[in-house]
Design goal:
The chain is 33% helix and 11% strand. It is of the alpha/beta class. A hairpin with a 4-residue loop joins β11 and β12. It binds S-adenosylmethionine. This is SET domain-containing protein. Keywords: Methyltransferase, S-adenosyl-L-methionine, Transcription, Transcription regulation, Transferase.
């Protein structure tokens, strides 16, 4: 904020010298400093006044510690029986040794029969995965204890964290505030001197000179450089050189620090890319003739720019506004090799319409949950009205508004009626405009059609016998995240699905008859139930979905039918995650000594049954690596690789499955496995029982050798009943133990018994309501069982683990928990 204005009086640019520019810059610098001083004085004045007011109104003048007597610490001496000593070391002044105070406290040891509460790292319970952006700022350094020899370890940790979180020093806010102030000052100074160059020319000069040779922001530099159409005139170059020299003298640093700072370059490049600020390219309105302006305003083109906003606001996978589950994964701009590229997700209107069509087509097979019927909206409704299209022309801006609205309205049948209502236009006219917009007439020439992959026939819905050698589309941990494709032309080279050798999904923008599109399973028509490898969806580690028109998945994924157990006893069984009903799971202290909590089953589970979803934050690998530094140091990690780009972290957000501990093999109590499945274009992790599991058994799955080795996961279930010591608890007795030890659980006891009695798909049928989240109805159970069932199993019993047979699994998809390098 420049309080004293800069003189408008233009000085003669021709007589300018380095000394004069220097003087002008100094004047402005002085002015800026004065201005800053005035601002700070005002702020302090205000702050003092505010503090005074608060003081009298709310602050107690007497310190609560005033009445406390000082405690005299005993300086050691004999320690009475039943006591222990604690050594304290306080540092008053870090640098001086004199500031170090050592004392020793004598404490009483209190013994109690109460079970020790296991260590627990706090988490918030979530019902579905939440996409979390990268956070490359190191916000705090965790306290890792003062144990012997930990100083070196802590120093190493701090170094590691600083390396991971700040690969390059980011501009501090003070620095960036200063830079922008000086930039403003510079602009004013050039204006005052009447020089015929502005900041743009100075930037061009610095880029021409190859100043700022750092490899950072290369793309931005190129974008900006290419936007200058004409080379600098010799006079301009001379002036820019003088400004650069004067700047260095006044500020004692190079001009490029201010004009080519990473932050500023990024800002400029974004502006250039969005076409708002192309020097010498985009004429201003005043430079255009009225005919040009009319042409621009009546063109159908301005729409795509605005559509960009729609596509980023509305998720292309689920249609939710600002979706937190899918969406463009976070970019780590500080990552080595990161390059700024301005790349709108979807570029043209036709792409978006195609995507819309694909989504609507994918939904066509689903039951219509809406209550709408095909009744005409008015006498002018397109459903009833016969109209002469050519007789009535809409203004360009109305057409443009219709285009924009079409994108956000997914119900195709109703969109003309809805738009007509909002715009107060005849429905038939809106409908006719929409029809013109749709790229239906675009028939692709046959030679240009996409080809089916060699290993998959989407019409017969079959895989070639050696398909597993030809693709990794089913190996989710190795493949990338599914991103719906949206491009002109057929799905061939250049299409992201094609290039990643993946199939197109129903959410992709390509046409329904794209030969690369996954078309689901034909199980019912082939007389098969989706339960084994004969179902193509199971073979490809996918859950059945709307694209499987005949197998019976569609009514089974309808949330309204979730608790209709009869429906699930037959028909498609490959919809676990979409149904989302798990058996009763009880949280208690793990039977693996000292590992904290563990998860137990509260009702019998059969082999192959679904146990729950491993939910948490979906984060990029870069973020996982950063978080992993602290997790690995604490030997407590909840990271789980989801695919080749993303991981799930259940440390901060998660559900009960985050408490499932590790076992190497059947002998150690391994009883469940984790599988990654593709569910409607989304990767998700589910737990399945590897064998029949008895009530009260602790769930254990194999985290993978790398994780187990790195974290030293060596704790095993105690052997069955040995000389009165603790043993594995299973069966009814275990339930008593789990139940009885925590009075809070008694209330649920009757319910659990009832569920056990009615086993055969029997699950806790809790009252539930639906809560809309981002426009999508999400099931929320009232009195959710999450975390209320704490218990500490302590009783002994025989370890009567059953023999586990049939361990040979054709598809190896048990996914190790992530470890960080
Ligand atoms: C996903 S958490 C499991 C829940 C954890 N027990 C708790 O209370 O939060 C994984 C962590 O549990 C511990 N853990 C799991 N299985 C273990 C085993 N067999 N031996 C030792 N520690 C284990 C390790 O600290 C590991 O990093």
């Amino acid at each position: 904020m420049l309080r004293r204005g800069v003189s408008n009086e233009s000085e003669q640019g021709q007589n300018v010298t380095v000394a004069r520019i220097e003087q002008s810059l100094q004047d402005l610098e002085q002015m800026t400093e004065d201005d800053h001083a005035v601002t700070v004085r005002w702020l302090l004045h205000d702050a003092k006044k505010a503090a005074k007011n608060t003081d009298s109104a709310f602050v107690d003048k007497v310190s609560p510690f005033d009445s406390m007597k000082p405690i005299h610490l005993s300086a050691g001496g004999t320690v009475p029986d039943g006591s222990a000593t604690v050594k304290l070391e306080s540092h008053v002044n870090k640098k001086s040794k004199a500031g170090k105070i050592r004392s020793q406290l004598i404490t009483k040891i209190i013994k109690s029969d109460t079970a020790r509460v296991p260590k627990y790292s706090f988490h918030t319970t979530v019902r579905r995965n939440i996409l979390t952006m990268d956070d490359e700022r190191l916000r705090f350094i965790p306290y890792m204890g003062d144990a012997e020899g930990s100083k070196k370890k802590n120093a190493r940790l701090i170094h590691e964290l600083e390396q991971a979180y700040s690969p390059k020093p980011s501009t501090s806010s003070r620095e960036s505030e200063w830079s922008s102030q000086v930039r403003a000052c510079l602009e004013a100074s050039l204006e005052k001197l009447g020089l015929e160059i502005g900041q743009d020319k100075l930037i061009q000069y610095l880029l021409d000179q190859g100043r700022n040779r750092s490899r950072d922001s290369e793309i931005e530099k190129r974008t900006i450089h290419e936007s200058f159409e004409l080379p600098l005139e010799p006079r301009e170059r001379e002036l820019a050189k003088m400004v650069s020299q004067a700047f260095r003298k006044v500020y004692d640093r190079p001009l490029e620090d201010i004009l080519l700072s990473e932050e500023h370059l990024k800002e400029l490049a974004e502006r250039r890319n969005s076409n708002q600020d192309k020097p010498g390219r985009t004429p201003t309105k005043s430079q255009l003739s009225q005919t040009d302006i009319n042409k621009m305003e009546s063109s159908a083109e301005p729409c795509p720019d605005r559509l960009g906003t729609y596509t980023t606001l509305i998720c292309l996978i689920c249609g939710a506004a600002s979706c937190q589950t899918h969406g463009d994964s976070a970019r780590d701009e500080n990552a080595p090799g990161y390059q700024y590229v301005h790349q709108p997700l979807v570029t043209t209107y036709q792409d978006i319409l195609r995507k819309q069509d694909a989504r609507i087509a994918a939904k066509a097979g689903q039951p219509d949950f809406s209550t709408q019927v095909d009744t005409p909206c008015s006498s002018e409704c397109y459903l009833v009205s016969r109209y002469d299209d050519s007789a009535y022309k809409l203004p360009a801006e109305d057409i443009s508004t219709i285009e924009s609205m079409v994108i956000s309205l997914r119900d195709k049948k109703r969109r003309a009626c809805t738009i007509a209502f909002f715009m107060d236009l005849p429905c038939w006219k809106v409908h006719s405009e929409i029809k013109h917009m749709e790229p239906r007439s675009v028939e692709l020439p046959s030679k240009n059609r996409a080809r089916q992959p060699d290993w998959y026939n989407n019409q017969k819905k079959t895989l070639k016998w050696d398909w597993q050698d030809m693709t990794t589309a089913h190996l989710h941990q190795e493949r990338c995240q599914a991103n719906p494709c949206a491009h002109e032309g057929p799905c061939q080279k250049g299409c992201p699905c094609f290039d990643s050798q993946l199939l197109c999904e129903s959410i992709c923008g390509c046409s329904d008859d794209c030969p690369r599109k996954f078309t689901g399973c034909p199980c019912h028509s082939n007389g098969i139930v989706c339960v084994s490898d004969s179902c193509i969806c199971i073979q490809m580690n996918r859950e059945c979905g709307p694209q499987c028109s005949s197998c019976g998945a569609i009514p089974r994924i309808n949330p309204d039918n979730r608790y209709q157990d009869d429906l699930f006893t037959t028909g498609c069984q490959n919809i676990h995650l979409q149904r989302g009903v798990s058996p009763k799971l009880i949280l208690g202290e793990s039977q693996l000594e000292g590992v904290g909590f563990g998860l137990y089953v509260g009702e019998p589970v059969r082999k192959g049954e679904y146990l729950g979803e491993y939910a948490g934050e979906v984060i990029s690998f870069l973020e996982a690596d950063r978080r992993g530094i602290i997790y690995d140091r604490k030997y407590l990690s909840f990271l789980f690789d989801l695919n080749s780009e993303w991981a799930i972290d259940a440390a901060r957000l998660g559900n009960k499955t985050r408490f499932i501990n590790h076992a190497d093999n059947d002998k150690d109590g391994l009883n469940c496995e984790a599988k990654i499945a593709l569910v409607n274009g989304e990767h998700r992790i589910k737990f399945l029982a590897l064998r029949d599991i008895k009530v009260g058994e602790e769930l254990l799955f194999n985290y993978g050798k790398k994780f187990a080795d790195k974290h030293g996961l060596n704790k095993k279930l105690p052997k069955a009943k040995e000389d009165g010591k603790r043993g594995v608890v299973v069966g009814e007795e275990a339930l008593e133990a789990l139940d009885g030890l925590n009075p809070a659980n008694r209330a649920t006891r009757g319910k659990m018994t009832a569920i056990r009695g009615g086993h055969g798909g029997g699950r806790s049928r809790k009252a539930r309501k639906t809560a809309p989240v981002q426009g999508i109805p999400v099931e929320v159970e009232q009195g959710a069982d999450e975390d209320s069932d704490f218990a500490v199993p302590q009783d002994e019993d025989d370890d009567d683990d059953e023999d586990i047979t049939d361990r040979r699994r054709k598809r190896k998809i048990t996914r190790p928990l992530r470890y960080t390098r």
